[in-house]
Design a protein that fits this description.
- About 30% of the residues lie in helices and about 25% in strands.
- A hairpin with a 2-residue loop joins strand 21 (about 440-445) and strand 22.
- Strands 2-1-11-10-12-13-14-15-16 form a 9-stranded mixed beta sheet, sandwiched between helices. A 7-stranded mixed beta sheet has the order 7-6-5-3-4-8-9. A 4-stranded antiparallel beta sheet has the order 17-18-19-20.
- The protein has 16 helices and 25 strands.
- By secondary structure, it is an alpha/beta fold.
- The structure holds adenosine-5'-diphosphate (ADP).
- Adenosine-5'-diphosphate binds near residues 306, 328 and 330.
Amino acid sequence: MLGLMQQRPLLISTLVDYAAQWHGEREIVSRDPEGAIHRTNYAEVAARAKRLANALDALGIAQGDRVATLAWNGFRHLELYYGVTSSGRVLHTVNPRLFPDQLAYIMHHAEDGYVFFDPVFAPLVEALAPRLPQVRGWVSLSDRAGLPDVKVDNLLVYEELLAAASADYSWPPLDENAASTLCYTSGTTGNPKGVLYSHRSTVLHAFAACAVDGLGLSGRDSFLVVVPLFHANAWSVPFSGAMCGMKLVLPGPRLDPESLFALLVDEGCTKSGGVPTVWLNFLTWIEANRASLDLGRLRLKTVLCGGSAPPRAIIEKFHELLGVFLLHAWGMTETSPIVTVGAPLAKHDGMSGAALVDVQAKQGRQVCGVELKLARPDGGEAPHDGVSVGELKVRGNWIVSGYFKGEGGQVLDEDGWFSTGDVATIDPDGYVQLTDRLKDVIKSGGEWISSIEIENLAMSHPEVFEAAVVAVAHPVWQERPLLIVQPRVGFAPTRESILAFLTERLPKWQVPEDVAFVDSLPHTATGKLLKTELRQRFHGHLAVAG
Ligand code: ADP
């Protein structure tokens, strides 16, 4: 017997309309590259998203066509998030930090017909244009006065497009399975692959994000969106923010600690979210300047962190310096991205100090709406004992079913599980702990050594700023871990002091074979350690070191 309840399509337009009607005055604050603050609200952003939809009609952009952005976090980018998707086009958020070759590949593969860009990306646009003949128009996200000097065909001005368009528009009744946004994985191996989200997957994912033990977002929160809008749907914040009417603070390109601190204070931010490298710099700056900062004005309570593993030092410093709880989450572009979140359980009430940091350092527990399992190579499942390792596999309504245009072929197994390539343990409480990427695991004499665990430990050494561990070839043990350290400014730790520090804390066979020092560690366009480069650079290190 079927139930007798209504079935309405799950569409992004319903979130936009909801925010406009019921949280219309809730602010959207943006800072432009020059530092000027712009204030708008959900009602205005939604109204302008409708003008944008009319403008897209006038340009002849059909439903399903890809509209690309090369833009930082700002209100116009948010309008594109809402207007492009709700009117039935697909928003392709391109990561401008990628190399030009990767950008040309991605934008060609996506068949982007129009590109909306921040004026600061004019040189990039000029370099890309000759390689992208399918692009019919380039739209500067500015008014005429802010139009950069850029030599491309069919250059348009965003504010002029909107001014010429009618404000009168009704969102079309789309199929909830229609595509809404497109993000490419950064493709550290092979070509980047496109993940094509749907309205349905986006709305369901936003419900999970809002939930109290999800990201716990609320209309009373003010959220500094440090995670870029071009990184995995900005962890759903544009959508879940609209769903609950949360104030959004969009920092533009300036992610330096001083600028972030000013926004956090001035805009009364209660929450924020970003990758560990941003917070590492932020906390170092806070520590150095605490005497002159009025920390009492900060209302920040929770910082969402993921994308790579936040070292314990970040978790501890957030707590000690600012009284902020680091909420650790794990996911990937292919998973929309939220799969696990480290919200504490009732049994953790009253817990503090190192014991709580132990919980927070794990990647969190699976949210409702997706399924997770720990697969052993033989196809069986590893037990949730916090020790047995396996590859994380995931399935659910906001998990990829295949890449755009069939790249990579069949990506699900016969039971619908997607292999994440992440190796982890799951403890009896359900907390996932990532030990490695499958490709980064160090295979030493038949045992697996976790690079993440050693990196975390090394970063708790007071003189270490950041650390990476890669496998290097070894004549006896096949592979051994090499620790690569970027010292804190003003410190010169020795190999011996770091190895002694690790020897006290690790089983002997896991202690790195050697320590190399670098001025700065390389990162990918999404803020992860660029281990491919480190592996190439240090491959023969042990042979050289003798
Ligand atoms: P990319 O485009 O670089 O692949 P993703 O955000 O999709 O960017 O990367 C997903 C991967 O990032 C995950 O598979 C995992 O290896 C890593 N990752 C994400 N969150 C965490 C976390 N909290 N701790 C450790 N690694 C993480």
